[in-house]
Amino acid sequence: MNQPSQDGQSASSDELREQVEEVRGELGRTVQALAAKTDVQARARQKAAEVRQQAAAKAGQLRTKAADVTHVVEDKVAHPVKDKAGEVSRQARAKTAQAGHLIGDKMPEPVRRTAARGAPALRGRRTVVLTAVAGGAVLVWLVCRPRSGKR
């Protein structure tokens, strides 16, 4: 077992002490590693943190890619679409003005005066006016629709 060294017993005791200290250090590291593996809650927290970091990185990549695609689409599509929308808007305004003039020309004078007085009050309440017009249209449709099957 012990081989006597030149100093005899003392050298082998020192060697044994060093070996025991090394073994204790290795054993301590092994126990710490095993304890870390068995600490499920800590491992789950660490894994969750890793997943959060990966998700944040992926979200950043997706945001960047979405912004790039948005710019490409805007560059390719925006100008023709905006031009067409502007043209349609101008046509709609022109047709509305034309219809307004036709109706105004055929409207009796008392109705025209009443409409002129009521128009400023109605401008702030477009939703109410549109709802009333839609309701009136439905009412006219109900009254005027053909009634098939009933005589």
Quickly count the helices. 4
Separation of the first and last Cα atoms: 122 Å
Mean pLDDT: 79
Q: Given the C-alpha coordinates, what overall shape results?
A: rod-shaped
The Cα radius of gyration reads: 44 Å
Specify the helix fraction band.
Answer: over 70%
Order of helices and strands: HHHH
* Beta-strand percentage range: under 5%
Explain what the structure shows.
With 151 residues, the protein is an all-alpha fold. 87% of the residues lie in helices and 0% in strands. The protein contains 4 helices and no strands. 0% of the residues are buried.
Itemize the secondary structure elements and their pairings.
Elements: H1 9-38, H2 40-106, H3 109-123, H4 126-144
Question: Gist?
Answer:
With 151 residues, this protein is mainly α. It contains 4 helices and no strands.
Provide key terms for this protein.
rod-shaped, 0% strand, mainly alpha, 151 residues, single chain
